Automatic annotation (TrEMBL):
The keyword Nucleotidyltransferase applies. It comes from Luteolibacter ambystomatis. The keyword Transferase applies. This is DNA polymerase III subunit delta'. It is an enzyme of class 2 (transferase).
Amino acid sequence: MAYTADHAYQLVEAAHERGRLAHAFLISGARGSGKEALTARIIQLVNGSGAQGGGFDLFGEPVVVETPPLDDLEGPWVHILRPRMKSRRIAVDAIRDLERPLRLTAPEGKWKVGVVAEADRMGVEASNAFLKTLEEPPARTLLLLLTSNPQALLPTILSRCVRLPLLGGVGLEAEGGQELVTSLDKVTASGLGNPRVALSIKAVFSSILEQRRDTATAAAEAALKEEEQAYKQVTEGDWLKRREEFHKAAAESEYLEARGRLFDVLTAWVADVLRVKSGAGGLDFPDSLPALRKVADAEPEGRLLQRMEALESLRRSLDTNAQEQLALEVGFLRTFG
C-alpha cells in the first residue's frame, strides 16, 4: 500500500509519540513524490523542531513552521549521504564515513540521523557494510533510506526497514518511458526469445537515451556560456575551468539518471509479466495488459525470472567500466532474446 507524504508522516508521528519509532525507514516513490520533504519533516519531528507549528498568530490563524530543504538540516547529528562519484555510485568508504558519527552519544533529546539518498546506488560491498549498521543500530539512531528503485536493494536491507512507499511524482511513463513501453508491447507481440525482438527493444532504448544525453549536454553548454559571459572579466580563468568541469559532470549525472529511469521501466514491465503470470494485481502498466498476457502465456515462470536477473545483471555491469553500447547489446540479447 502506498501513502501520500502527509499520511506517511502521520504514521511516523504516531509511532514516535507512542515511543515505538522504528530504527530504519525505506522511503520510496517516483521522482517528485516528496521523499526528501518527508525525510526533512521526520528529522524535525525527532529532534524537537517539528514542522507542524504550534499556537496561533494575532489573527487566530494556526502558526505553521516551514520545512527547510533536506540538505539544510545537515549538522553534527544529521548526516546525509548522496552518490558523489562520477558513476553515481555510493562507495563503501562513504558508508563508513556515515556510520562513524552514529557511534557517538547525542545530547539529551536528540537523535542521530543517517540519511542515504538514492540508496539503490549502493554497490554490493557498500550494501553489506550498511547492513551491519541496520542489524545493530546504535542507541537513538534513525536511518532513513530514500530510493525510486527499491527492487534494486538487497532483500536483507528491505527486510530490516519499515517501508513507506509514496504516491505521486513523475511516473514511469514520463520522459520517454511511455515510448519504451509502447515499443515493448508492440515488438513482443510475437513473443520473446529471438534476436530481432531484443535488438528492436535495444534500438528504442538507445534512441531515447541519446535524446536525453543531447538535452542534458545542450543545457550544460548553455549554462556555461551564460556564466562565461557574466564572469569572464571579473574572475580567474581557473574558476571558469572548474565550472566547465562542474557542468560536464552535471550533464553526465543527468544522463545516468535517465538511463536508470529507463531501466526502471524495463524492470517494471517484466515484473508486470510475472504478476500476470501469477494472477497478481497492482500492474505498473495496466493499459499493456493484452501484450503482457501474451508474453505471460508463452513464457515459463522460471524463464521470466531468468530474464529479470539478466536485466539486473546488465544494469550492474553498466555501473562498472563496461563499454556501454556493447554491454547493452549483449544484455538485451540475454534478457529479451
